[in-house]
Amino acid sequence: MTDRLAHQSTRNQQFWRQFRRHRGALIGGVVFAIIVLGVLLGPMIWTIDPGYPDIRARNQGVSWLHPLGTDQLGRDTLARLMAGGRSSISVGMMAMVLSIGLGCLIGMAAGFFKKLDGPLMRLTDLFLALPLLPLLLVIMMLFREPLSRSIGPQAGIFVLIVFAIGITSWMPTARVVRGEVLGLKERDFIRAARAIGATNYSILKQHIAPNILSPIIVSATLGIATAIITESALSFLGLGFPPDFPTWGRQLSDATIYMQDYPGRVFWPGLAISLTVLSVNYLGDGLRDALDPRQQNLRK
Amino acid sequence: MLTYITRRLVLSVPTLLLIALIIFLLLELAPGDPMAQMPLTISAEVREQMRQALGLGEPAPIRFWNWLVQFFWIEPQVMIDNLFGTSLAEGKPRIISWQHHAPVMDIIWQRLPQTLWVVGSAYILGILIALPIGIYQAYRQYSVFDQAGTFVTLVGYSIPPFFTGPLLIVLFSVQLGWFPFVYDTTHQVSDWESFTFQVKQMILPVMVLSLQTTAQISRYMRASMLDNLDQDYVRTARAKGLSEARVVISHVLRNSMIPVVTVIALGMPAIFGGAIITEKVFGVNGIGAQLIGAIQANDLPTVQTLTFIFAVLIVFANIVADILYGVLDPRIRYD
């Protein structure tokens, strides 16, 4: 009975079966979901204001009042972790959306239109040859003041970070997408669609886009991890969000000053970053296995 | 092969010029004024003189041209002067740092050894650890060692250096007190004792950097070994009665190393980028720290020059990787 069901399983069910088999991916997905839910819903339960300085309760250790202690200004570490997670994860998500969007656009254009292929791929190569971390730092230094003056310090830096990470990380996606499109373009079903008079736009939308979804999903997942690390690195180097705005990287960087006296304070934001990135990487690995039909046959 | 190398080198010139232009335009278009930090009491006249002194009087294309001439023509002459005691570059304008009022390249040459020591030894150590791990993982695929190795490399891949750094400092410097937790850049190696101190202070930063390298390269090594292990020529080698060590080391490993060597070449500039963070964590006074300092001080000539040097490293690593691929793999023909 179950065998027959398995035979009739649709693509979705097959995907789930394959995904569940990858235990690391399942755990990764669950951990990531818990972290996201925790930082989203956590502040409703744990209602201490992350920005409220309780000077008399500063530098406290673990207690019932402050489960993870307080920092040098008496701000609650747990509340700050949740607030920091919100900004770190939302920066990661938005930057990933931007970078995947750009990558898909450029990759599809390069793969589909022969005339654009050369110039766009040279552009991709050029971007790959740029020293990205130094350039990111330069962009942050040069544009943070004017942007934060025009749309407010926090919104300005948010837009700037998302934009900067997005335009420096689309290249791998563009290459993968171009490769997939090039392979698909010569297949019979695309020719058939063209023969019945489908326009370029509808071929791209109806036939090509659904078929290149799997690699895009995988690189999107891995993109979140890279974006979170990059944002934390920028904040750690002091070129990210302003000091009063909690993000994981910023908290880690603030805590390193007090590392000798309060080593525990470095631990929590660092653990949060690492756990998030690790779970997302495992999730991406599992998705790659589950979505790639060539690997499915090999893995039996 | 020679024609290929020449062609690649010639083609890299426009790429590098374009990159230099992009960096220049980025710094140029940025809405920031180097005089913004100056006190308001300075009169407009003096302000204008200061701008002239910083070389800001000329229009942008001329300043870009000046920078190119200084970087590609005058600085090599200075290098030749220093090496052979000639005086080719005497009196010629060099790239001057706004922050230190000294030639940018001199500061870079002072600081480069610090970075190279830490980054170089970390990279070599990382590779030396990564290769055996990757080989054994692939040889015993799906074994406990393989699973554990995959987990450890994924962890090493996911934990950012700005967390492993403080973590190792807390563990080894604060708790155990084995190693100093701030890198002493003025330290001179003169005898055995100072040498051991140098080794001791290098251990933590090298550990942080090599963890990243190990994680990346052992993954590649494992994948590349797996690609080769079930090939026909391996079966032939076993059928001939060669020992298992012979089969793995001289047949499989040699073929698997081809892509790995190119990855190693490609990864070199990236580790310089990673060193920016590690240098900040441990207070190593290298070129990464110089870049951060210049960025914070709005020292545009230093930023431009250093960023461009990073770009040169990337472009040449790419060329080296491609050439190595051609040399190692006889199936690749570039002509």
From TrEMBL, chain A:
Pfam families the UniProt entry points to: BPD_transp_1, OppC_N
Keywords, comma-separated and alphabetical: Cell membrane, Membrane, Transmembrane, Transmembrane helix, Transport
Recorded family membership: Belongs to the binding-protein-dependent transport system permease family.
Single Gene Ontology BP annotation: transmembrane transport
Gene field: gsiD_1
Transmembrane regions: 25-46, 89-113, 125-143, 155-177, 212-239, 266-284
InterPro entries for this protein: BP-dependent_transpt_permease, MetI-like, MetI-like_sf, OppC_N
Keyword Transport carried by entry: yes
Coiled coil spans: none
Bilayer topology: Multi-pass membrane protein
Ranges where the ABC transmembrane type-1 domain occurs: 85-284
Name of the protein in question: Glutathione transport system permease protein GsiD
Annotated Gene Ontology cellular component terms: plasma membrane
Key word Zinc present: no
From TrEMBL, chain B:
Domain of life: Bacteria
Membrane topology category: Multi-pass membrane protein
Source organism (scientific name): Roseovarius albus
The ABC transmembrane type-1 domain, residue ranges: 112-321
Keywords on record: Cell membrane, Membrane, Transmembrane, Transmembrane helix, Transport
Protein name per Swiss-Prot or TrEMBL: Dipeptide transport system permease protein DppB
Compartments where found: Cell membrane
Principal place of residence: membrane
Alphabetical list of InterPro entries matching this protein: BPD_transp_1_N (IPR045621), MetI-like (IPR000515), MetI-like_sf (IPR035906)
Gene3D superfamilies with a match to the protein in the record: MetI-like
GO cellular component entries: plasma membrane
Entry similarity comment: Belongs to the binding-protein-dependent transport system permease family.
Transmembrane segments: 115-139, 151-175, 195-215, 256-277, 308-328
Gene Ontology biological process: transmembrane transport
